[in-house]
Amino acid sequence: MAARALCAVSPVATDPYADCLSASWLSARLAVDAARIDAMRRSGQLIGVRPPGSSTWLYPAWQFAGGRPRPVVRRIVAAAREAGLDERELYDLLCRPLGLGARPEGPRRLADLVAAGRDDQVVAAVRAARPRA
User: Fold this and answer.
1) How many angstroms separate the CA atoms of 113 and 96, rounded?
2) Of 42-51, 69-78, 102-111, the least confident
3) Domain boundaries, the chain
4) Strand partners, 22
5) In whole angstroms, what is the distance from residue 22 CA to residue 89 CA?
6) Which residue, 53, 51, 107, 46, is CA-closest to 77?
7) What is the per-residue pLDDT for 102?
8) How much is the pLDDT for 92?
């Protein structure tokens, strides 16, 4: 998982879910039952997203470090739920380019800030977000 753990995907990648892992992949890699992974998502321990038209949950690789979910994931999910964001809106927010203030050599998405350990900044951005109308 180390090779996929950081945000190796360009914000202009053609597959917006290229940085995600399937529950079956996580189950095999982490030696955790797929049902437990789903329970972790539902309880806010993991960020999961369903691509449009899919019934399969995918899990962004950047939320893991050392084979475990980063501690900030619970805070991010809680902030998203408080803000009224659904799973896809949260994933889209975390993977959206940061904008004009982002430097080419620095983080390009909130997900990159997660990987860099800038937890408070990410949680504040998620808390300030609003759901799509």
Assistant:
1) 12
2) 102-111
3) 17-128
4) 58
5) 19
6) 46
7) 53
8) 94
How buried is 44 (Cβ within 10 angstroms: 0-12 exposed, 13-18 middle, 19+ buried)?
Answer: middle
Query: What does the alpha-carbon distance between residue 12 and residue 92 come to, in Å, rounded to a whole number?
Result: 13
Cα separation, 83 vs 88, whole angstroms? 13
What is the number of H-type helices and E-type strands within the chain? 7, 4
Helix (H) or strand (E) holding 65: strand 64-65
CB of 23 closer than 8 Å to CB of 34: yes
Work out whether strand 58-60 and strand 64-65 pair parallel, antiparallel, or are unpaired: unpaired
Between 13 and 111, residue with greater pLDDT: 111
CB 37 within 8 A of CB 25: no
- d(C-alpha 36, C-alpha 34), whole Å: 5
Contact 67, 51 (CB under 8 A): no
Give backbone dihedrals phi and psi of 65, rounded to 5 degrees, phi first.
-145, 125
Token digits of residue 71: 């501690």
104-120 as b/e: b if 16+ CB within 10 A: eeebbbbbbbbbeeebe
pLDDT digits (tens, 9 = 90+) for 46-60: 999 999 999 999 999
